[in-house]
Amino acid sequence: MMSKKLAGILALAALVAGLNLAVRAADTPTEVPFEEGKEPPPCKPGEGWCLVTVPAIYKTVPKQQQTQAATFYMEAVPAKFETKPEVVALAPEKKVSTVVPAKFKTEAVKVMVHPEYKVIEVVPAQFEWAEEKVEARAAYDTLTVSDATYKIVPEQIQVAPATSYWKKEEGKDCYCMCEKPAKFVTVNKEMLDKDAVQNKASVPAVFKTVKVQKLVKPASVVEKTIPAEYITVDKEVVDAPASVTAATVPAKSETINKEIEVAKATTRKIEIPAKFETVNETVLDKPAHLVWRKNTCNCGSIVAKYKEVPGTDEESLLKFSK
User: Which of the residues in the chain have pLDDT under 50?
Assistant: First the structure.
């Protein structure tokens, strides 16, 4: 009875310790930050940690640098003028000969209303009805599934846990994780033999006939010439030439255009913005820092020294169960 109980305790302790050690070793990265006063993280047997200084990292960033300061200059704005009419006396009243104007008569003449030109007419396209096959339902796939099958596979299970401890290498700032090996038994386990299978079948598309309009003759353009058009109008022509008679000529005056200043000349300020250029500047991206870096090392054979895994004797296991 005691042997069966001891065997159960042994299997339970081995399983818990082995799982904890495997999880801690699998989750440990190859490099971790150094923290003052804390030991390095756990690792696999035969591995250790070295304290290493990671150098600082720099990067190049763009920077705006002024190459020319902002300034200004004064621009001359000319005066503005307007043209206004003004009556100016040209001659006083006097006695002069008077010109009798010529006499005119009306004659019919032909005048063009518009010249010859061209116009463009669009002849619309012609269509006819026709039958055409179109897809009424698209092709698709159907699926069926075959169940998966399983088989019995032997598997090793740990019955005595492995234990580990830290060992500092002489003359180095490195620490090794050393291990006392575990014990295992073989058990049968049900495993997947063949995956479930999907079977695919294709269903063809369905078509139907519909009536559509098809182009018989495309649209075209016709150019036509429109002739020039004329009308008959009355035109005055000289019937009798002008003549001269003596008469009193009144004073003469003339309206002239005179430029008058409406806005005086001035100046205005023109701003010239500053100029910049982009230059590259090297800045600190990440300072130098200490890290624990994983290393391989030799712990020696624990089993060869002790002839068995320490802590797996009956007395130790009974203490563990209490």
Answer: 1-3, 5-26, 301-313, 316-322
Distance of alpha carbon 15 from alpha carbon 182, whole angstroms: 10
What is residue 309's predicted lDDT score, i.e. its pLDDT?
A: 38
Smallest Cα–Cα separation from 49: which of 178, 153, 195? 178
Nearest to 206 by CA among 107, 261, 135: 135
Give Cα separations from 248 to 94, 102, 201 (angstroms).
6, 20, 122
Domain locations in the chain as residue ranges: 2-321
Report residue 51 as tokens.
């304290």
pLDDT, residue 7, reads 46
Residue with tokens 């995956």: 195
Measured from the Cβ of residue 144, the count of other Cβ atoms closer than 10 Å reads: 9
**Burial (CB count <10 Å: 0-12, 13-18, 19+), residue 161:** buried
Q: In what order do the strands lie in the sheet with 31-33?
A: 31-33, 289-296, 47-54, 174-180, 163-168
User: What integer pLDDT is reported at residue 315 of this predicted model?
Assistant: 55
Q: What is the pTM of this model?
A: 0.28
